[in-house]
Amino acid sequence: MRTRFWKLPWYFFIVGTMIFLSSCQKDSSDETGTSSLKVTFRILNNGEPLNTSETYLNFSGEQYRVDVFKFYVSNVKLRTSDNRVSEEKESYHLVDLANAESRELTLTMNNGSYQQLEFTLGVDSLRNVSGAQTGALDPMLGMFWTWNSGYIFAKLEGQSPQSTALQQNFTYHIGGFRNGENALRKILLNIPADKPIQLGKTDMVVIDVDLARWFDGAHKISIATAPSLMTPGGQSLLIADNYATMFTLANVINP
Known about the structure:
Layout: H1 10-25, H2 29-32, E1 34-45, E2 48-49, E3 56-57, E4 63-79, E5 85-87, E6 92-96, E7 104-110, E8 112-114, E9 116-121, H3 125-128, E10 144-145, E11 150-159, E12 169-175, E13 185-190, E14 197-199, E15 204-210, E16 228-229, H4 236-243, E17 247-253
Parallel strand pairs: 1-15, 12-16
Antiparallel strand pairs: 1-2, 1-7, 3-4, 4-5, 4-6, 4-9, 4-11, 8-14, 9-13, 10-11, 11-12, 15-17
């Protein structure tokens, strides 16, 4: 005896509908896999490649020369125009002026077409309270506060004739994530609509990092007034606001 469709239990129809809708909502990456994307950071000063042997001027005419510049990039995400997200796993990278290889990240992300690139400058609170770690978070890389049991998010060191510190040095070690001292900053870069990041097709994304914004971003930072900041909170948060403005999408390179 044949069973007519309309006599089947009603829940078969409901379950089938839910399965269909669920499949429609899946990220396209579930069907097309993953690809590698290279993200290159170009470190500049006022639009020109940063040179450690060159002397620069900040907004107030203070001279400075850079010896050390490092920062953490973490929790990298790509976002589609309809707000679907691909997130890099174990996403912690230390970008170092002195290490050219560190300035080129290779990310494994879900295939798709993306309109935003997002990352955090710094190390999230979970990893900050997990003690010293390995890889990009290895304390031997010089970005761990042993006295404070946490990570330095961004470090800038050099010399300036206007510095009142010993040997005219300036030293900025910026970090901290607790209420009132949170130096974590989210960086969100919009991708041109006519040139999206297309995983599986896009070869490279180039991001410019303009160090001049460290002193002249959301706030004006004077070396003479503050030649040394190495504790969370206070004026360090002003620099955190500034370094959030250093990043600009320069190019999306397709083959």
